[in-house]
Amino acid sequence: MRLTDNFRSLKRKSSMNIAEIFFRDWRNLADVSFCPADAVNIFLGRNAQGKTNILEAINFVSLLRSRAGKESELIRWGQSSAIVRVKFFKAGISHELAIEISHDRRRRILLDANPIRPRELIGKLNSVLFSPEDLFMFKGSPSSRRKFLDAQISQAAPVYFLELSKYTRLVEIRNALLKRIRDGSAQSEELDLWDEQLAFVADKVISKRLVAVDKLNVLANTMQQKISAQSENLSVVYDLRGLDSRENISENFLRTLRSRRFKDIQQGSTSFGAHLDDLKFFINGHELKVFGSQGQLRTAALALKLSELQFIKSETGEYPLLLLDDVMSELDTVRRELLLEFLRREEIQTLITATDRAYFPPRSFGKFFSVKAGRIAEVDLEVMA
Questions:
Q1: What residues contact 119, with CB distance under 8 A and at least 6 apart?
Q2: What's this model's pTM, rounded to 2 decimal places?
Q3: What single string gives the DSSP state of each residue in 35-86?
């Protein structure tokens, strides 16, 4: 299919789909481009060939997140800069989004050739990434669960990302002031103004999280029941650490800040709030991180990712792009078939990486690509058979 034909088909669907992706010196992707199918795209190859780099780049364009400790690590060895450029349709309108990172210049983000700031990027190209690491989210740190929740809310409602960023900055300012008070270079009364601002913004952040979790509860449980053949109920609870009520959050937050002021000054940090809250998951009333079996953990992780797709669609009217990084090997045959059937039925554009062709049915429902040493090539199924 020619690129122009791909664009026409996307316009008819009037949904968010990528039409073309280009990489230059991104990880081991030296000078690579390809046009994905509207539906499922499967990238096959051995480990360390560049499959994950493809998904990482797309996720970076969506959320500015990567596995790298520093952005400069995303640049191919020996090169001075790296570029990823994505042509896509959103709400029936074509766009081009490009990010360039460099060793000696600030990151550049261009939307339709116009520079934008990082905070303006969120919500432009929505994606959901599911990787083997997500299977450990339930037993990992609270920060991993907060990131899961914050990412889906931010993509569905970009204003939330701005509020969360403001909240984080206010916590940093308050923590710095707490240390100065502890060291005798500031007075405790200086906290009054910052505490009022923090409580005001915390109300916005926490309120949106509570609404999102209420909606996620319904969506995730529906998915869990489908995947578990109606044998399991999944529930999600937002753990308000330090607050005893969902009502009058701003007032309760401010009152708690004041009651903990002496403790916070002693430790030099804010001891409660949205930056410390957590999510708890339960299967049939039992906490998943404590009592969940490996099968239940896998089923719940898959249910949550599928519910994340539904959540973003319910808020924006369009499914986000789905990125599945080497998860087919983590799912049994039944779960793989249920996942692929869901993708076929909902016509969600999906990019899947895998090492084994046997994970997929013999009849094609998308495109297959081979990935070898940073090279990507579309593969004819007749040749692969």
A1: 161, 162, 165
A2: 0.90
A3: ---SSEEEEE--TTSSHHHHHHHHHHHHHS--S-SSGGGGBPTT-SEEEEEE
